[in-house]
Amino acid sequence: MSVEDDDWATAVDIQEGLTKVEIQPTKPASTGKNSEQDEFTTSYGDEQTPTQGDQSFLRKVLRQKLVTTQSELEVQQRDPNSPLYSVRSFEELNLRPELLKGIYQMGFNRPSKIQETALPMLVSQQPQNLIAQSQSGTGKTAAFVLTMLSRIDTRDDTPQCLCLSPTFELALQTGKVVEAMGAAMPDLKICYALKGIRLGRGEKARGQIVIGTPGTTMDWTVKHKSIDPSTIKVFVLDEADVMIDTQGHKDQTIRIHKTLDKEKCQFLFFSATYDDEVMRFAEKIVPHANIIQLKREEETLTNIKQYQVHCRDMDQKYDALANIYATLSVGQAVIFCHTRNTAKWLAEKMHSDGYIVALLSGELDVSSRAKILKRFREGKERVLVTTNVCARGIDVEQVTLVVNFDLPMTKDRHADFETYIHRIGRTGRFGKSGVAINFVSDRHDEKIINKIGDHFCCSIPVLDAGDYDDLEDKLAEK
Ligand SMILES: Nc1ncnc2c1ncn2[C@@H]1O[C@H](COP(=O)(O)OP(=O)(O)OP(=O)(O)O)[C@@H](O)[C@H]1O
């Protein structure tokens, strides 16, 4: 990885250190106020699932472990060690009544730790900049959406907030959160700056909140001048680390960042992961940033149980997957493959063996991808086979199981720690229990999984996919 900073506005001190958790008192940044059915899906019921042996016990164990009740959530929100812990209420934030209404309508009773820590400074009269890290599924999106909604003036539909997401799917998902939270704000208008959405020549973007991917947003802001950067009060970089670390995204984000008024605009960077270099770089480009950073050992969530399953080859991987699939009587699963080809092969093989699976990979056009994800969200398929395109941010509450069919690796075949955290974070959303299973098929995989365990200071015990008694014991461990 390399992060060059030449192009960026700089000038704040770089703070060294890997595991700081700090909020710095800072200078305010601003003084302002069917036919759709996927080719790999069939109607194929549970009863027909080709299982071997008696898996009812495993089903029971998974069901017991994976269902989290509202009262369990309440307990976690009162546990100071939980990322969901909170002593505050949303009322204390002095939000507009219609925004508070939206939050309660979404079923949010109290803020999570990241929300309770970040929101007072984010929505204060003197908005402050923030670089924030919090574990997957702990409410970061809700935090920055609430901030944007608290800052807009709905009497006017000129763009006032700009939110960048790394993928089309994530941008749409964030838009849905804006819609839900802003449901009681009648004149709220969202504008999507996404591939395929075109503005006429000279046409201005209309909507207080613009959500987009970096390429289209850059075109609209820099090339076509459809967005006036001087009216932007809040700039959000979701999944900030990947936006900074991926060359194409980075260049486009830089060009948008350059147009924004560093004195008037509030800058918010959010992610579940930041490697050291990316964090240092983020600190340089966000003026007077407050920083919330996790310790390494805090990055993995204890409510996601992680295991490794040893398989000799692809056939064994496939058999293990079939056994695991058979246990999935509740919830949904996401299976991650390294390449589009493997994902396609796996989905086709599962499909021809009669499983209900959906395939989502980057080779599909964005509208097909959105349709597939919508179907999965609606529970039409219980298994989604995918690549890293779905590793980040996607929030599907019922996902109880993540399988790393291939371990996450960088191009030079090193362990990809950040992708690991994001992939397994598709389960265990907001305090729910989840299971992540890693397939390990050779010595190199063994090294990778050991490095992942060491990096996050957690153990990833071996699970024999055929040994259900063993699984019972392991899942029962607290
Ligand atoms: N205060 C809250 N009370 C109850 N549920 C909440 C609260 N905040 C967020 N949620 C819910 O928790 C889930 C995860 O939240 P969100 O998507 O904001 O997490 P995230 O930290 O952005 O995740 P990721 O790192 O994967 O992007 C969502 O379904 C959201 O609706």
Automatic annotation (TrEMBL):
Keywords: ATP-binding, Helicase, Hydrolase, Nucleotide-binding. Residues 313-476 form the Helicase C-terminal domain. Residues 1-55 are annotated as: Disordered. The keyword Hydrolase applies. It comes from Oikopleura dioica (Tunicate). Pfam families: DEAD, Helicase_C. Residues 121-292 form the Helicase ATP-binding domain. It comes from the Eukaryota. A motif (Q motif) lies at residues 88-116. The lineage of its organism: Eukaryota, Metazoa, Chordata, Tunicata, Appendicularia. Residues 88-116 form the DEAD-box RNA helicase Q domain. This is RNA helicase. SMART domains: DEXDc (SM00487), HELICc (SM00490). Its EC number is 3.6.4.13.
